[in-house]
Amino acid sequence: MIRDGSTGKGEERAPEVLALEALGWALADDRRAERLLSLTGLTPDRLRNGLGDRGVQAAVLEFLANHEPDLVLAADALNTTPEALVAAAGKLSA
Questions:
Q1: Fewer CB in 10 Å around end: N or C, the chain?
Q2: Domain boundaries in the chain?
Q3: What is the secondary structure of 3-62 as a DSSP string?
């Protein structure tokens, strides 16, 4: 049974971990990073200072959830599923 955040190989990752991994993935591409900042309203300082903030983490995952091509690419790069990323965003927003 694959649970939220699971790699499909037995290890489940916490929503916070998925969010930080997704942030690293998003920031690795300059155009995607610019779009993340533009669409979320976050600033580089807010990102740096808010890494442990569930609201910032949720914003990163919601950014991906709102653009399916990036969601699918991020899930593949992070060895998880798009559904796990969306579920993590929901948990962080709750």
A1: N
A2: 15-93
A3: PTTB-SSS-B--HHHHHHHHHHHHHTSHHHHHHHHHHH---HHHHHHTTT-HHHHHHHHH
For residue 4, pLDDT over 60 is answered with no
The two structure tokens encoding residue 55: 């609201």
> What are the pLDDT digits (tens) for 48-73?
999 999 999 999 999 999 999 999 99
pLDDT at 32 over 80: yes
pLDDT tier, 3 (very low <50, low <70, confident <90, very high otherwise): very low
Residue-level length of the chain: 94
Residue with tokens 């939220």: 4
Distance between CA atoms of 65 and 80, rounded to whole angstroms?
Answer: 14
